[in-house]
Amino acid sequence: MTVPEMNALSAADAGAIALGGDMQVNRLGFGAMRITGKGVWGQPEDREGALAVLRRAVELGVNFIDTADSYGPYVSEDLIAEALYPYPEDLVIATKGGWERVGPAQWLHNAGPKHLQEAVEGSLKRLKLERIDLYQLHVPDPAVSFDASMEALARLREQGKIRHVGLSNVTVEHVERARRVVPVVSVQNRYSFSDQEWNYMVDHCESNGMAFMPWSPLTQNRKANDAVQKIAEAHHVSTAVVTLAWLLRRSPAMLPIPGTSRVNHLEDNISAAAFQLEEQDYHALNAIVPPPFSFR
């Protein structure tokens, strides 16, 4: 099948997913890391272009945007507020804390309770929000008790500053430990058609009513790319469309958040919402990169 005409593109065509039972978003979101400068550091080279991407995403039915205070740092959150505030009623902005950006391509763990409190306050101010709908621990801090980090987020939730809690870059053990402290509605780990290390996490999220947000969802190796390219050419779509369509079919818990700094790439990504892989193509792709667990 072909993708819809440009004026008919809508992220809503991917269907919806519930977060925490009281938030529903379209199942194709936008990851706002790439709207910052090179190395996820500083201002974007094309600030107006970055703002245009955010506005176009919302025009195309994207009502879930994922960011983090470390993107820039702070730049991504500032741009989201500049481009979209006052926000549409159905827009959910998810952000993260606990992993600081100290230079281009440089990260520093900092998930202590005091810092997480400060990080949430900072994100609230930059995003011009009274409450963050989904706040995620960016990554467990090896120097801080994981339970202490989760207890800090639980307190912030009780204070009304966080609506729901999510996790990023975690194992199933982390998820279950966290759930003993506070309800967890989502997990964000690296995942793509050609990188299925976290297959069991996808299944765990599906079985337990949590969303799974794959970061780097378009990553491909050569073998996988050749298979995807063949299907893309047969249907006159891009490899990104095929890859995103595979993710959407992989599990109803999947909430892809492809990011870009260019409007044309954004539009192409969103067109995947209406593109459904044919049965034989889906199974052919699964045979190329066999997962450690069987697909449904």
Short key terms for the protein model shown above:
single chain; 296 residues; TIM Barrel; two-stranded antiparallel sheet; 11 strands
Protein model, in words:
By secondary structure, the chain is of the alpha/beta class. The chain has a single domain, classed as NADP-dependent oxidoreductase domain (TIM Barrel), CATH 3.20.20.100. The chain has 10 helices and 11 strands. The protein has helices spanning 47-59, 75-84, 113-127, 146-158, 172-179, 199-207, 222-235, 239-250, 263-271, 279-288; strands at residues 16-19, 23-26, 30-31, 64-66, 92-97, 99-103, 106-109, 132-137, 162-168, 184-190, 211-215. Strands 3-4-5-8-9-10-11 form a 7-stranded parallel β-sheet, with helices on one face. The protein has a two-stranded antiparallel ribbon with strand order 1-2. A two-stranded antiparallel sheet has the order 6-7. Strand 3 (30-31), helix 1 (47-59) and strand 4 (64-66) form a beta-alpha-beta unit. Helix 1 packs across helix 2 (75-84), helix 7 packs across helix 8 (239-250) and helix 7 runs antiparallel to helix 10 (279-288). The longest helix has 15 residues, at 113-127. The radius of gyration is 18 Å and the shape is globular. The model has no long low-confidence stretch (mean pLDDT 93).
